[in-house]
Amino acid sequence: MTAPAIELKGISKAFGPVQANKDISIRVMPGTIHGIIGENGAGKSTLMSILYGFYKADAGEVFISGQKTEIPDSQAAIAAGIGMVFQHFKLVENFTVLENIILGAEDGGLLKPSLSKARKTLLELEKEYDLKVDPDAVIEQIGVGMQQRVEILKALYRQANILTLDEPTGVLTPAEADQLFRILGRLKEEGKTIILITHKLREIMDITDTVSVMRRGEMTATVKTAETSPEELAELMVGRKVLLRVDKEPATPGDVVLDVKNLKVVDDQGVERLRGIDLQVRAGEILGIAGVAGNGQSELLEVLGGYEDATGTVTLNGAPIDLTGKYSDGRSRRDRGIAHVPEDRQREGLIMDFAAWENTAFGYHRDAAYTSGLLSNNAAIKADTAEKMERFDVRPPHPHLAAKNFSGGNQQKIVLAREIERNPDLLLIGQPTRGVDIGAIEFIHQQIVALRDQGKAILLVSVELEEILGLADRVAVMFDGQIMGERLTTETDEKELGLLMAGITDTDKPHTIAEIEANLAQAHGNPHKEI
Amino acid sequence: MDFLALFDLSVLDSTVRLTTPLLLACLAGLFSERAGIFDIGLEGKMLFAAFFSAAVAAMTGSVWLGLLAGIAASMALSGIHGLASITFRGNQLISGVAINFLAAGMTVLIAQDWFQQGGRTPSLIGGGRFEPITLPFANALNGVPFFGPIYAELISGHSILVYVSLLAVPGTWWLLFRTRFGLRLRAVGENPAAVDTAGVSVMGLRFVAVGICGILCGIAGAYLATGLQAGFVKDMTAGRGFIALAALIFAKWRPWHALWATLLFGYLQAIALRPDIIEGALGFRVQVQLLDALPYILTVVILAGFVGKAIPPRAGGEPYVKER
After folding, report:
1. Could you report the per-residue pLDDT of A3-33, keeping only the tens digit for each?
2. For residue A10, what are the contacts with CB-CB under 8 A and spacing of at least 6?
3. Which domains can be identified in chain A, with CATH numbers?
4. Does residue B200 belong to the interface with chain A, where contact is any CB pair within 8 Å?
5. Domains in chain B, please, with CATH?
6. Are B196 and A74 an interchain contact pair (Cβ–Cβ within 8 Å)?
7. B199 shares contact with chain A (CB less than 8 Å)
């Protein structure tokens, strides 16, 4: 019997009182793709950091091809044949592809021989694994898909036999993700061992051979992918049965609430981030904005939320709202009945060091119920917060706890409670479930649908296509500051939306991946930086 | 009016001499900032080096020992800066400011204690100074029209440190863009995480960069006290460290551009010494104070961003904290 390519035995790691990894054991056989799935904070990333020598485990052993191996630093990990493709790429943006590949793996003190050797090796690797890159392109000028291939090539150039990828599809369009999976399949055929870390069940089901599930720092199960189902995996991740599908009736849209015409935004560098957006959201419907991150979705939310100036016309219930000047701020927006759940809850939605009750008052602190004369009525705010926390099932339900002490899902519930409970006409909501655990996702989706069913208009921005398809009634796809097309979610699929996300509008014709990538690389926004 | 007089050989000659400390300090800053460590302590390091080189040269009579002492003193301050900003991940600007204050105070204090001459060192004589070097054939070629005097007066006849500083430009360029060390150094200033995950020590690289910065500042300071002048006087760097920083931004962190930028500043300093020539060229008298202020005015203009967008190394000023 062959030894496992990699075996971890009893790995434990604590950060202060938090047990990030608890007695983790795992065996990955050579030439297989092993998935590790778990919610945010389940300890997946910590485990991989230990494997790559970033952290030292408190206890446990690592075996590579049957040999006990110490990994005190990244150099040791590389020497042991471990390659890592991080979620946030570790590339030098103004270096060429070739320079990035040789960095740290140069032969000798002079660059020239290293570069020409790397160029030759790169050609061989390209042929062997179908990994196409332009060796002389500068990283900041190529698309995310190619950047990711550079990361994979970096690992292969260092002769990695075990390749670990952390949430590799987060920034890719569906077509690019498919291409990545073809490459991974090819690597597997060539005998490489691949560890894929993700929170996306579909990816696990599509390409892994075996899958391990992590929950709260523990490895709860390892199963053969062929013998499990998404539902079972979700249950193992969360610890209870969860509904993966959003349960909702067809929408019954009413009058137009939000009407946006020819909206344009130019950023500080003079780059047009929004290039003439037209869209409408009706009462009782959810309009989803899909797109690769960095294509103008954030700016759209910022303009509508009142913290970015723009030109064009926007009306709410038929009356125009100011896009510049004194009455274009967040307060004026709230007065008009626009509530906003920002994309980055930790930076824009909450002040992490402030207590839940203080965060609940933000933006609404002038509300009559929250004040008594010139002073704020803290007792009233706290009572209101406690009530909201109960209704939104925030755990633990303590108004005095600082925002940073809640999990991602519970932080999001605090923001949602603050905004939804104001009974707005229009809810702007960005990345509602980013970094939120599956259990909380279900709840948050239910709340959004319930608001829709009360006849409110909802503008939903999400980079998760699955979320848009499940939650929204209509979807508009943004690319490079423009809307490439609108579809009813019941009449479209990931493939069509994926092409629109790459700026390709004739979606009924076949398109090559090269064409898609060329289009993406042209876009003004470099999506990678936005994440 | 005589515009050509603005480029009189004597003006150009002092331009070369006044450029030298600026150029060395600018290249020093280039190494440090390319590695992601901002260094506003160039001024302090130069001052420290100026004092110790003059003091040791005065005591031993050997300018070479003086130079070594200057480099050592500057590197000691570099070590403090490295410790504060690399090892302990402190604020690089605050550490730099502290070094400037430390150097300004300590030099005068120690000078008074050692020499009792009001915070200065004794004047350096003979072997205590870097003497001008006459390049081969300088005298023979002096008779050749045009090129002869340029060679004999402008190119020949400077101290060895002037030539060292000029050679440091291609040297820096080669090191940065043609060697493994340079690739890693530039990478660590742009994205230290990329260097770290490639299995190379971020701290090690940054310390080496800060060390090179110390050596170059040391030479710059030593040149001030033992080449340009004959001894140390209080605050003799006179803002040159800050002018070098402005030149570095002007040069967009590139070695050859650094040479041109510091030559410009050096020229402004040189012309400020010759109000007579300016009066001749412009036809009216310009206040000496205004001329003295020119390099600093240019500095303000450059820092205010009137010379196009300068993109500093992306990880500059940020201590590296290992995280995923």
Report:
1. 899 999 999 998 887 788 999 999 999 999 9
2. A23, A24, A25, A59, A60, A61
3. 6-238 (3.40.50.300), 245-332+427-432+456-531 (3.40.50.300), 338-423 (3.40.50.300)
4. yes
5. 3-124+148-303 (1.10.3470)
6. yes
7. yes
